[in-house]
Amino acid sequence: MKIVVCIKQVPDTTEVKINPQTGTLIREGVPSIMNPDDKGGLELALQLKDKYGAHVTVITMGLPQAEDILREALAMGVDRAILLTDRKLGGADTLATSNALAGALRNIEHDLIITGRQAIDGDTAQVGPQIAEHLDLPQVSYLENLEYDGKKTFTIRKQTEEGYQMLEVDAPCLVTVLAPAFKARYMSVSGIVEAYGREVEVWGADKIDVADEKIGKAGSPTSVAKAFPKSLKPAGEQYDVDPEQAVGIIVSKLKEKFII
Amino acid sequence: MDFNLSKTEELFLQMIREFAEKEVKPLAAEIDEQERFPIETVEKMGKIGLMGIPIPKQYGGAGGTNMMYGMAVEELSRVCGTTGVVLSAHTSLCAAPILENGTEEQKMKYLPKLASGEWVGAFGLTEPNAGTDAAGQQTTAVLDGEEWVLNGSKIFITNGGYAHVYIIIAMTDKSLGTKGISAFIVEKGTPGFSIGKKEMKMGIRGSATTELIFENCRIPKDNLLGKIGGGFAIAMKTLDGGRIGIAAQALGIAQGAMDETIKYTKERKQFGRSISQFQNTQFQMADLETKVQAARLLVRSAHYKKDNGIPYSVDAAMAKLFCAETAMEVTTKAVQFHGGYGYTREYPVERMMRDAKITEIYEGTSEVQRMVIAGKLFKK
Amino acid sequence: MDTTQYKDVYVFCEQREGVIQSVALELLGKARELADTLNEKVVAILLGKDIKAKAQDLIAAGADKVLVVDNDVLKYYLTEPYTQAITQIINEQKPSILMIGATTIGRDLGPRLSARVCTGLTADCTKLEIGEERELLMTRPAFGGNLMATIVCKNHRPQMSTVRPGVMKKMTPDAARKGEVVDYQIAFNQEKISRVRLLNTVKEDKGMVDISEAKILVSGGRGVGNAEGFKKLEDLAAVLNAQVSSSRACVDAGIIDHSRQVGQTGKTVRPDLYIACGISGAIQHLAGMEESEFIVAINKDKFAPIFNVADVGIVGDANKILPMLTERLKGMME
């Protein structure tokens, strides 16, 4: 089985803070990480590698420094790593991003494509299904488990709000996963030792068969008209008191609001 | 020497920090409280290769550097001093002497299982009457046909009982003094070898510290490590490496106490402001931070020398001396900054203070380190 | 693309087992407002099996027209048949705007559809307005909720967005409203549909209620620490007849199920009372709960951002305060 996992380098948005005076983002010192859902997807791929001897490729589209997460993926145990990076690909919305990635994926053998459900910097959850459409592959989002008959068919358990669905899906297909469904393994020490000695293939836009008007800013139907800091309602009162008094304050406020 | 970490080391640090935070920290208070060996952590460490960091790949190790190993001990100790010493004793005191002195057969037999964590390692030198004066060994080993027969006992043995492989230092010819001391590999379960009393300790309470008893314990002739009479040199060299491990442990404990104190002094308010805003806090913390950073440089420079084949025994002594004393100072002050809470088990600094103390004692007391350093100073 | 050929505001009205989902009615309410501004119509798309009877509910909720596709392949949601049905509707009807609820279904369907019809899609919108050039202004949290971004889709139609459940306001249902119900025929491509086969659907009682429906939430974060801490939340919740929810930290730590996560990657909640315990208030979390009617925050860090949205902020240890609060309330209830 040939698996390709699409991963993305994202700022760790949980580390982003707001300057309380200006209401602007404090971006300095925010570490870049492998997107958590993508890491879950990578774990699924590695479990399938352990189970079926699958060959796992990771691909990321981004700036040159996105190489870092490819090294991490190598240290976790993937077989091949590809960095798709080109100025022409910049400024892309989800549709243009999915066009570029689909173009690259056409040039990589695959029975299964795995993406994270969504990236924590964009939270769109769109790129996975859009890639599937461009490649004319069936898609299953929110995958919880996957079995492979070794030939043509995946049996997939898909998480739903009410429980789960069992689906039978023809290969090749694309699935998306959530981080909590697959707790990612640690990089192994030997994997780390070897990671920087291994090859990371760097692909430019010339390596993908997609027209220029379908990628980057030109290929993006949507654009940002404006961005602005979120307005927060004015803060209420703050009490720095001992626990006994705190309980009294909470109880009296709840009474005041007729909540109790 | 390059003061920046390499890309590989940075990647390793990312992994070990996450591992320490998620797998080790949540158990730290519990294993201390229950005086329980963290066997589940050892299994997890083995699985990802942490039990064999500096062991070459051909012997099943990760093929990493001693620098990386030191970073691992530091980061583990930052959240749990016990876990740090389990790894340190295993790697520095058991795997390393086999790697450095073992025959090809011994390396092939022991290193892969030590590296995978299937077997834990330990080292037996100290005896009731031979502590700092290691030459006073009373455990004996006598060759009887194809077997060595060991008699005697060892005390304060880290990983005792949980370890499968023990490097045992014993006297093979008393008349030769230190030249009559040899090193042996003894496996758990060998008839005549038993685990004695388990020590009840002040700190690193999750680590197993026991007595080892040898009563006509017969081991194959081939279990001699190195040459006959080479045991004292092996022990001293092993301790040189071990000292950097303990230095890294002390450094980790100190850093952990710094982390906790920074967090606490920012949260804790007295007289209407965070205690981190008081100049007394700031100046003392600035001094401690400087010492911790100096300690880290000593550890890294010692490991750099070890990795590059440069003599490091004095560096190891200086690193251990300074890190241990820094750990004791930082943790003691950390408790003070925490006030009454610091004295309770609600906050981890009291555990860190208890854990720090041993680093001034084992694998050569601070006094022994001073002897080593002064010995070099006044040589010739 | 001649965008002037496209008109009317379309809403994909999600149903599950014949039950129209609340978000569909919220979207119709918003669509009504947008269509009135544009002086266009609201068209509801209703896909399923034996669901035609529900069309009137959609009209009552604001639709002028309901396109009903009744077919066996639409009985349960599956990506391909739903995409085929709506693609044909888009190609034939040329809607200007298409809104989809940002549920698990909508967020699976929306992107697939947008790629098939080659148009833009804006995810998880929290605000929709009509701009000066009659364009749709789609506002959504960006960068993990740290910023708000207004997105436009200038030269492609339809302008598609998925919309966060619980954000838009439903109309008061008006049973007297009149509208047209159209049976829409779709030429399904069975071969493509057959690539995914539904074997069975299993409902699991996860012992959970939907936290977005709860009136009172007692929510825990990193400061509560562990399962033992969450027990204290449950005790308080029991007294208040509330539900327990959580920030992402505790979900990631495996202390609590993902279904109870509030925030950007979890659920948006608007309870009457939200008690945030040991939650620092990362912006992602605030995005999911700041619309709550009344917010009480307990946190050790005086500067925790949660205090910026709290009506009552208590600087202190939730682990100490909660049991005392529970006892006090218990006493009062008796």
Describe this structure in words.
The complex is a heterotrimer of chains A (260), B (380) and C (334). With 260 residues, chain A is α/β, with parallel strands linked by helices. In chain A, 26% of the residues lie in helices and 29% in strands. Chain A contains 6 helices and 16 strands. Chain A has helices at residues 36-52, 67-76, 94-105, 127-134, 189-195, 243-256; strands at 2-7, 9-11, 17-18, 25-26, 32-34, 55-61, 80-84, 112-116, 139-140, 143-148, 153-159, 163-170, 173-177, 201-203, 222-229, 237-239. Chain A is globular. In chain A, 51% of the residues are buried. By secondary structure, chain B is α+β, with helices and mostly antiparallel strands. Chain B has helices at 7-34, 39-48, 66-79, 81-101, 104-116, 231-267, 279-307, 313-342, 349-358, 366-377, and strands at 121-124, 140-144, 147-158, 165-171, 181-187, 193-198, 209-220, 224-225, 269-270, 273-274. In chain B, a hairpin with a 2-residue loop joins strand 2 and strand 3. In chain B, helix 3 packs across helix 6 (231-267) and helix 6 packs antiparallel against helix 9 (349-358). The mean pLDDT of chain B is 96. Chain C is elongated. In chain C, strand 2 and strand 3 (19-20) form a beta hairpin. Chain C has 9 helices and 18 strands. In chain C, helix 3 packs across helix 4 and helix 6 (227-240) runs parallel beside helix 9. Chain C has helices at residues 22-38, 55-60, 79-93, 104-117, 190-193, 227-240, 248-252, 283-289, 318-333, and strands at 9-12, 15-16, 19-20, 42-48, 65-70, 97-101, 121-125, 127-130, 136-142, 147-153, 159-163, 180-183, 196-203, 216-220, 243-246, 273-277, 294-299, 312-315. Chain C starts with 8 loop residues before the first strand and ends with a helix. With 334 residues, chain C is an alpha/beta fold. Chain C has a 7-stranded parallel β-sheet with strand order 7-11-6-1-4-5-12, with helices on both faces. A 5-stranded parallel β-sheet of chain C has the order 15-14-16-17-18. Chains in contact: A-B, A-C, B-C. At the A-C interface, strand 3, helix 3, helix 4, strand 9 and strand 12 of A face helix 3, helix 4, strand 7, strand 9 and strand 10 of C.
